[in-house]
Amino acid sequence: MPRYGYNKLDETANEIRLVTLFPGVDKSDIVADLHTISFNPDEPVPNFEALSYTWGSSENSPEISIGHLRDCSLKVTRNLEVALRHLRYADKPRIMWIDAICVNQDDLDERGEQVKRMADIYARAKQVTVWIGPAGPNTDTAIRALNSLSSKIQANWSFWRTTPAQDSDLDDNHWSDPESPLPYSSDTVAGIQDLYGREWFQRLWIQQEIRMANVEAIVVCGQAVILWSDLRKSALCLFNKSSLNPTIDKAGLRHVWSMGDLGYTNLSGIISFTRRCRCSDPRDRIFAVLSFLETYERDLKITPDYNMTTKQVFQEAIWQWIQHNSALDILTLCDGTSTTAGLPSWVPNLAIPPSSCLLQTISTASARASCAALRDGDNLSLQGIHVATINEVDKWQEDESITNAIRRLATPLLEEITNGKRHELVLDAFCMTLNGGLFSNIYIPEDKNSPNWDTFRDIVKKILEGGDGFAGISASQLKELDNANKYLRGRSLLRTDSGGMGLGPDTTKPGDEIVILLGGRGAFVLRPSRDGHFQMVGECYLHGFMNGEALLGPLPPQTRSIARYDEKTGAYWRCYLNENSGHYAIEDPRLGPLPSGWRRKDHDRDHVISWFVNDTTGEGLDMEWRDNGFPDPRASAEAFINKGIGLRYFHLV
């Protein structure tokens, strides 16, 4: 049977193809037909479903028949063939959009154009149908249990908690209570782990597909069905259970309930969130997440083009983001492995999973300054200041327990921590560094997912006091070390020539330099290279330098940099708390008054961040929101130089 030949789509008419899946039962041949429609935003389209599934291997691909006369065929993956057999109706046709069938995968130009439309396709579909595979031994039981659970709970996605459903009985309150165990049999538990462990949840493209879906999206496993919203809500409830059966992967549950709604984030955060997701084409690390962009990033000059090389896609995306936002958050994705992949060191190698998680920070090490970036081909020049040179590096060791790691990493400091004149300060610095400075007390209200500072410090102190380190420490207290366990993996504890302490990539070496780059929230590790150039190693936590101290000096006494939750925007915002007066300030108290000619402009977020304009020069008047907010004239390179700060350009290769 001849192979199906695609007709060229008219891109000027915004054409797409839909597939009609004809009725069939059991092992009868799969028969489908393709037709073309205009997909203009202001025109109605026929009702169709968009399929979200896992492609699977293309080896030994079966064929389906195309056309009423079955006069040609089309190869599909085995996974898709199984899905079509389960999803076709027995007595009527089913109209769907299926990427592997509706897009000519051999036409690179068409692929690029259709990728641009995929978000709209999933958004305008009557229903998104998720196929996660055939039924397992206990998946039907699990879906019945999760359908029941979801009817008894509701989710608070702002604080990642579940509460009893509004119409639930008092007897049902235990379902959402984190301390109440779920009365599930071993078969149900096995089925739940099977469901949430399916490959579909790890696929990169489904992040866009399910995010754009409407509330009618369903998940199909064999013949069992559950609403996507109910499956996600149940994952949140299970994740928060303190007595969850250990055979259920909590990291997998977190991944599931985090899907579909990333909250307020940027391209850098989106790439980080999806970094461990699977895709067959590394260029899709960028192309598959473009529809997630916030409004202020929609005009990034990044267009899906499969004629570009992976290096070109990665490099242009990073550069366009830096230019657009005047910020360097996206460089935190670098981990020192880029040059081995033929990339400039400042271009993260997104083709491989990261060796560590990103340091979560509200820091403003560069005082919220806009970056000064110059590019010449593969070279990138960034303005900043040198703060330290690394003398010693202690790497995290695989299969090392967190308690043993704490003892080993503290060994060179043990004398100072226990007997030195500055022992309390050294212990504080060590504890802060272990967790990248992130503790619950920097959030208002406190973030219960971050460790409590007093408890964490007390545990570390007891571990270092000797013995088995567990005397007087409860199991719940030991959970306070979970974040440190996460942050230490793939990283090294650093000690500098000035006696400082930090946390950097495991590729860090003695002799590397720690710098504060304008536009960066944290510090960076750079490696001196040839001819005065540097290689980017990666992001770094450097104790005592994460709140602009290198550029502005220390914060005033009794003043803390914190993150305060704002209900209007649904996000935490950095501000400064005067602990004596209880007053919150959204601007850094070290910056002083605005220069002559500058003023603050009213805008819809002026209660959480200031917008500065100069009516004389016009600066800031037509400014659009950027990732690091609005430029502050008091935190410009010129302002720092005028204060005598020794800024310089670091030339990255």
Report on this structure.
It is a single chain. With 653 residues, the chain is an alpha+beta fold. A hairpin with a 2-residue loop joins β10 and β11. α3 (108-124) runs parallel beside α6 and α4 packs across α7 (228-240). It starts with 14 loop residues before the first strand and ends with a strand. The model has no long low-confidence stretch (mean pLDDT 91).
Key phrases:
653 residues, alpha+beta, 9-stranded mixed beta sheet, 6-stranded antiparallel barrel, 25 strands, 26% helix, globular
Number of helical regions:
19
Give the averaged pLDDT, no decimals: 91
- Tell me the strand order in the biggest sheet: 5-4-2-1-6-3-7-10-11
Tell me, briefly, the overall form.
Answer: globular
Largest sheet: 9 strands, mixed
Q: Summed up, what is this model?
A:
The protein has 653 residues and is α+β, with helices and mostly antiparallel strands. The chain is 26% helix and 21% strand. The model has no long low-confidence stretch (mean pLDDT 91).
Outline the secondary-structure elements.
Layout: E1 15-21, E2 31-38, E3 49-52, E4 63-66, E5 72-75, H1 78-87, E6 94-97, H2 99-102, H3 108-124, E7 127-133, H4 139-151, E8 153-156, E9 161-164, H5 186-196, H6 205-212, E10 218-221, E11 224-227, H7 228-240, H8 250-258, H9 267-274, H10 284-287, H11 310-325, E12 373-376, E13 379-395, H12 402-410, H13 414-418, H14 423-434, E14 443-444, H15 453-464, H16 475-478, H17 482-488, E15 491-496, E16 501-505, E17 513-517, E18 523-528, E19 534-542, H18 549-552, E20 559-566, E21 571-578, E22 583-585, E23 598-600, E24 612-614, H19 637-642, E25 648-652
Parallel strand pairs: 2-4, 3-6, 3-7, 7-10, 14-20
Antiparallel strand pairs: 1-2, 1-6, 4-5, 8-9, 10-11, 12-13, 13-15, 13-17, 13-25, 15-16, 16-19, 17-18, 18-19, 20-21, 21-22, 23-24
Helix pairs in contact: 3-6, 4-5, 4-7, 7-8
